[in-house]
Amino acid sequence: MSEHAMSAAQSARAERIAARTRGDNWRKPPRRIEASECITCDSCLRGCPEEFGAIFDRGLDVIIVPELCSGCPACVLECPVDCIYVDEDWTPTDASVWSHVELTADPS
Length: 108
Hints:
Pfam families: Fer4_4. InterPro entries: 4Fe4S_Fe-S-bd (IPR017896), 4Fe4S_Fe_S_CS (IPR017900). Keywords: Iron, Iron-sulfur, Metal-binding. By secondary structure, the protein is an alpha+beta fold. The protein is built from 4 helices and 4 strands; from the N terminus they run αβαββαβα. The chain has one domain (about 5-105): Alpha-Beta Plaits (2-Layer Sandwich), CATH 3.30.70. A two-stranded antiparallel sheet has the order 1-4. A two-stranded antiparallel sheet has the order 2-3. It starts with a helix and ends with a helix. β2 and β3 (about 60-65) form a beta hairpin.
């Protein structure tokens, strides 16, 4: 990805974080991690494309923020225990998670 394209992707991610909404053009539902099956290896986190940055390790669990998840299968392909599923019935992310997302967001 070119530097300009990466900058645009990071800007779009920052806008989604500020608005706390999913991309309007995203047709696939977001993914979710089944905590009871997850081994907290962070493979999914490392596999999530930077322009989405939807996966966060909160210490005891790894979560996908649905508003940042495009529904692409990148994390699924990296997961060694197949604990990532399509989340047709996702709910908005709570404020405590958004606080973590905003703290870890790239300020540039």
